[in-house]
Amino acid sequence: MVKMDVNPEKTNKLKYFFEPRSVAVVGASRNPLKFGHFLLKNLLDLGFKGKVYPVNPNADQILGLKAYARVDMIEDDIDLAVIIVPSFKVPKIMEDCSKKRVKGVVICSSGFRETGESGQKLEDAILTVAKKAGIRIIGPNTTGILNTSNNFTTSFAPLPKLRKGNVAFIAQTGLFAAAAFWWIVSKQPFGVSKIIGLGNKCDVDDAEVLEYLTQDEDTKVIAIYMEGVKNGRKLFDIFRKVTENKPIVVLKSGRTPAGMKASMSHTGSLAVNDEIFDAVCKQTGVIRVSGDLEELLDITKAFALQPLPKGNKVAIITVTGAGGVMAADECAKQGLELANLSDATLNKIGSNMPSWAVVNNPVDIEPLFEAVGPEDSIKIALNAVLEDKNVHSVIVLFVAVPRFIPIFDIKDIIKDVIKRKYEPKPIFTHLIGFKDTVELYTRQLEEEGVPVYSSIERCVKALGALWSYKAYQMKKACGGKH
Amino acid sequence: MVKMDVNPEKTNKLKYFFEPRSVAVVGASRNPLKFGHFLLKNLLDLGFKGKVYPVNPNADQILGLKAYARVDMIEDDIDLAVIIVPSFKVPKIMEDCSKKRVKGVVICSSGFRETGESGQKLEDAILTVAKKAGIRIIGPNTTGILNTSNNFTTSFAPLPKLRKGNVAFIAQTGLFAAAAFWWIVSKQPFGVSKIIGLGNKCDVDDAEVLEYLTQDEDTKVIAIYMEGVKNGRKLFDIFRKVTENKPIVVLKSGRTPAGMKASMSHTGSLAVNDEIFDAVCKQTGVIRVSGDLEELLDITKAFALQPLPKGNKVAIITVTGAGGVMAADECAKQGLELANLSDATLNKIGSNMPSWAVVNNPVDIEPLFEAVGPEDSIKIALNAVLEDKNVHSVIVLFVAVPRFIPIFDIKDIIKDVIKRKYEPKPIFTHLIGFKDTVELYTRQLEEEGVPVYSSIERCVKALGALWSYKAYQMKKACGGKH
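ok -> structure tokens follow
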């Protein structure tokens, strides 16, 4: 396999992938069932303002645009070519791109290294052309780029209506990224700045994209799904650099021999020792999730919506004793400690309680219900712990049991809290009960920026990730060696 | 604390808790904001056919029923008294129950051992009366019983519309059980046979309820949330006995010092060494979940809907390569192995694939889409692996990406599979993509008994639990010592 050298100038070239002024879509098709049709349609539907040139030797016009037989027949300069033709045709297209002095190509086609030896040769061939011509490649075997700031995309998977936001998502793989994106847009309260599908990573890899995203003002959090690592040292350095300013959350699969084998036939990824990768993450302040996409999104949501905690002392407010016990268990596993609530806090909460009730942390507010109702119960407890200097973050565990606990506008509580302008402390919530009410409260809370989780474990894990990143930063600031 | 002896006759007495012919509701109230009102109303609304007697010295009639000043003033025999009055009044009520020769009491009131020393004394006092009179107690500090087969309940938390089913749920705690129950009924595809909230377990404990449920024909799976264990040896013996016929899934919290402390002030549960409890579960074939309620329900759903696998060889059918890699990783963690698909299976799937595609396990069916469409792609792959003798269970990972993959009636696929009457093999699915489509497919699949999970990890963990239980049974059948 041909190796590219690391060169800072090359990184600048990535801007052509995200902000191209002119794009050739090679393999654009009039047939509405073909990927080449979807790809062009996505780009036009999104409202991309740059110039778009379909390339297809068998068509004069596609979706109202003049089509060209070859890339090098386009009169205009071309920043980026997106290629979606059968793999065996790609080397010839690369020659055309070389003639045209195209700056970057995104190769969406499959049928390369991931399929075995002959595919590997094909991939080597296109890389040789690219190296000679100074063309950078994203892919092959990917959906490529989505940039919500300029409505640019190379995705052949249909896209939902976009919600712009502060999360960049790097995935190795196409349809998975598309499905994940649909899931994010339709289910998650945060928005997206960039999505990058890297595919086989024959040239551009995670490290370079991370370098680009470090400087991207639209991106606050970076979430990554990766299978293989090509250049561990380079990744280590860039991880360290990025986490100085932005959290990185990584889901890396191919952890077991069975997973590695499956990964080999998927993106042709090389195996990497999983324990080494774990150590790299720990030393660079990168949050590695142990689960799957659900956990990646759980934690990404936390970083996207909430401030970092100043320390590891947590107040748990709960309606059920059982919830408090489970949350306390999970806090211990996450390196979080239950705060010793101040006397002032205990008094504020306890003064309305029946005589038999004891105020502790976890704060069980159920005994308050009969005295002041559920809405004020939460307000009293939440305001008390947010004012308490011993508390760095708050977990609220609530249930939606219709008729027993009347439905109320949960937004009021959050607005009341926001109004009081406490020093920012992360607030995390878990809800359980009647599905419709849970969904209503979830929507209301997340619109106000308070993340909701459907399991206590997931809720506390997400807070644990914020604390873990903060602890890394604190240690580094104190001159701790990593 | 007074200890009760183990006595087989006492177990039979539990039937009065589940199938009472006559019930006194002590603390029934006309005030629609009081728990004592909810409790009586629940019982009447559910349509319980036994006799119901409200007890309240300050009322003549409650909800249309004649009220009595004391339990022992009721003319009829009383099988069960449900008590929901302030804790200090309970000893007197117990004396009345003793005079009336009541067989069992459910004490819903709080304010006992969980609140400290004086509460502990109160709890000891009522237990002394009960022991002398031969009355069994469930509680205190609980919601008690729900039996869907005769519409009987002692719950003061409002109940949703019931779906009868094969899952019994034992919880230590009231509002949590209520919230969990709402969650189950509104979100889960399985139904419930019994719910039992044990509270402080001053008398009747998990072991006795398990013994009752072993013989309960309505119950196929038993899910337990517990904090403390009172009599480990007794629990060990009953675990062994029950798992011969029915799976037990346990969520035990209070695993860490912080959790134990929280548990102490919740149900006054005594700490139990967590590693010992873990070992007990392993040796008795009990599935202990490491997460929280979400995982408990994930696994319970699996047992409720699917047959056990005959072995640990899994076929993974996936639309995204990334999904296949993650599922393969998780299988390895769960002791599941990827099946070597037979040549016949590989041919059936491969014959429609484009030439560059390679069929493996995980089976990536995306290359089939252009040839036969998504619906037939799944059918071809699913039927092939279900026919394959090398395969014991199947995981299907699907995405809902509108326009790209057209919406189709996913039920057709399942019905096609069911029609063919293969040897039963568990089928588990994971869905990701556009929320509305994911929810539609989830409903359609689960109506046909195919469980759907929103994360690959959770999906494979649930299958792993089925295999773990089956492996325990196989080992035991071969004379393996536990």
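The longest strand of chain A covers residues 164-171.
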